[in-house]
Amino acid sequence: MVLPSWGTTLVALGAATVTAIILERIYHYITRPPFEPAGKHCFITGGSTGLGKGLAIELAKAGADITIIARRKAELDNAVIEIKSQCRHQGQKVIAISADVTIKEDIVRAYDEAKIKIGRDPEYVFTCAGAALPKMFLDYDLEDFDRSIKLNFLGQTYAAHQAALRMKEAGIKRGKIVFVSSMLGLLSFAGYGTYSPTKFAIRGLADTLRNELKQYDIDVHIFFPGGILSPGFDQENLTKPEVTKEIEGTNEPQTPEECAKSLIHGLRSGNYMIMVDIVSEILRATTRGVTPANNFFLDTLLALVGQIIASGYALYMDWLVKSLKTKQH
Ligand SMILES: NC(=O)C1=CN([C@@H]2O[C@H](COP(=O)(O)OP(=O)(O)OC[C@H]3O[C@@H](n4cnc5c(N)ncnc54)[C@H](OP(=O)(O)O)[C@@H]3O)[C@@H](O)[C@H]2O)C=CC1
Ligand SMILES: CCCCCCCCCCCCCCCC(=O)[C@@H](N)CO
């Protein structure tokens, strides 16, 4: 008997893997939850600037009715004009409601007002409002921890709770709740002591609801952007420690438009965890835990590569922070 050579075995294994990846992709495509924004009421917190506004524009182009939520009226009004100018047709409604997502009564009122003004409860909800205040842990005031958890975690939690409640009561089928985490919800390093924990927490909530809300046919997704060139990004860079800038320097920030397009692409593909580039895809595959794969065979390959990169990156981060110690002496 002639045994196949190593070369033949490797080619056969490679071909089997590629076939498995393609077959699973086709299956995933056929069975994915629908994403059809045309005619849907899309409710976007943090919709007046940055990612939220970029997303509102993309959804308006796709034919959706839009409600944006934020605190400052002037930014909301400007955003409404910009979003309206991108609508596919005249009949689309675009409204703004001034509300603070950290205040429970505000969130309830925002959903009530949106229902009256648009004429029905939202079918798709995107919880974009959030912000970072990067500093070294010891430079924070104790109040900073409360502020971050209120905005970045509770703000999304309140909005999601009201969304699910109203979708259930209105009997909306295939409603969507889309959470906004960050790559910093999957890894963290010096400078993000108030922010990263809240973005990890959102992952916990999203994992819970992805499973729990299936009983009402509500789809849950979570987005993990890298840097976004937004007013929030300019603001956080004012306090960001140098070492934090250095560690995250390997990430190329995107425009809100590019970022919103990645999110929409992920929703169209029916992915639960939605990423923005190849590095973030590797990070997802390496840290996804007990969630559905986007593509089991490809994710497993990426995770293998990711384990190596992640271990190397941890050494690099530690080396950068340790070199601060040498600088201090
Ligand atoms: N920028 C980045 O590099 C990254 C950002 N992200 C995340 O993406 C999301 C969008 O970020 P980005 O595009 O930078 O956002 P921006 O800072 O540009 O916009 C934030 C939006 O949220 C609103 N907002 C802030 N606080 C509240 C509040 N208490 N109640 C209601 N609305 C509020 C703001 O309006 P107003 O102030 O008037 O209320 C604004 O509309 C955030 O969740 C952020 O954590 C994730 C990865 C990277
Ligand atoms: C397995 C592979 C591991 C290697 C990963 C290396 C990536 C490191 C860069 C992380 C960049 C984080 C940007 C988040 C921006 C953000 O959320 C803030 N701007 C807050 O708004």
TrEMBL record:
Pfam families on file: adh_short
E.C. number(s) listed in UniProt: 1.1.1.102
Q: Which GO terms describe its cellular component?
A: endoplasmic reticulum membrane
Q: Which reaction does it catalyse?
A: sphinganine + NADP(+) = 3-oxosphinganine + NADPH + H(+)
Question: Does the record's keyword annotation contain Membrane?
Answer: yes
Q: Which domain of life is it from?
A: Eukaryota
Q: Under what name is this protein listed? A: 3-dehydrosphinganine reductase
- Species this protein is from: Hesseltinella vesiculosa
